[in-house]
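Aim 2 progress update. The chain analyzed this quarter is reproduced below.
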Amino acid sequence: MMHFDLIVIGMGLSGLMAAKTAVDVGKKVLIIGKGMGTLVMLSHTIDLLGTLPLTARVKEVLPQWIDDHPEHPYAKAGFERIDDALSSFNAFFQPPYSFQARDEKNSLVPTGAGTLRPTYLLPSTMMKGVAIQGKKTLIVGFDGFKDFYAQRVADSLKCRAVTLSLPDRVQGEVTATALARSMEQAPFREAVAAEIKNHLKDENLAGFPAVLGLNDPVGARKDLEKKTGISVFEIPVLPPSIPGLRVFNRFKARLLQKSATFLLGHSVSKIILRGKRCEALEVFRSPITDSYSADRYLLATGRFVGGGLQADREQITEPLFGIPVAQPAGRRDWFQKAFFSDQGHPVHRSGILVDSSFRPVDVQGNPLFENVWVAGTILAHHHCIEEKSREGIEISTGYAAAICALNR
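Predicted structure tokens:
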């Protein structure tokens, strides 16, 4: 049986941050996940708290917001650790592909639906799309790419659109991943740039779906700018998220460099407990079952989409450790009467209760385990979609929970 200092269960952003935090101080880490969490589904930018006024410097007003929401995961982490976690994340993404906040405030960025949404940290390939209203912009789509309708985006943003024909050498279904790979090829960019130049009128800015390559999107953007003579930026599109894949790939490469062990594509099949301690876990990899042990375990399996929480007709449960889930008293109380209620649906605030060290607790606040910690959106008392705080919660609690675990 292989033994580790820390086993992280879950390969989303919170799990990756926890693993990074541990390997940065020389710990032996195993990270297990059946997938990449919501990184490849939803993550394009880093939302910290999108409900704050656009005029507010986020880090100046966040401490008071935390004081006003004492049960929120941000309150468990505390402002100082949130700030440290964001710094740790940013240090992982050095220029040219870095994450930036404009004037330390939330920024409105265009989406593939043609709307504008607030977010805090943007990848450098999206920065030129901030505050595009009123600018002479061309929205660029691709024939056969069904996840981005350039004309609809342009109509909403009151600018022009063009849908480009793809070169004959592009074969098969036109997906975000296929386009990202094509964008890394100079001849493809040459053909795209030539078509754009033929369609330009008085535009000096072009918005592309976020598919400017997996490995060097900044290089692809600069090459397109050089060939077209105008500025280029990316617009988030439907899943799979190419920006999310870039984040995952960066984490995976750096963690492997620091000797972390990955079990991607596998899920934990059994937890072995002795009293209040987790002794080991089992991973079924057909046709065998492997066992792994650690001094510490960190649960970061996400919510319903990632399988961290499961719901039947009666209740919501946590399937691995059997940790009690804070939830409404009955299924009838899961949802508001109005689907688009301003108050949000109570079911979305369900999750695991933790103490100030991110150890899971019962409803009386008593720790359930001696060597288990919990991080990410599986935590209770937040509504990350409505708050636009999902990545912020994942980064800050993954970091903070790992710090707490390693200090014991």
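Residues 37-93+302-320+339-396 form one domain. The chain has a mean pLDDT of 92. These observations will guide the mutagenesis experiments scheduled for the next reporting period.
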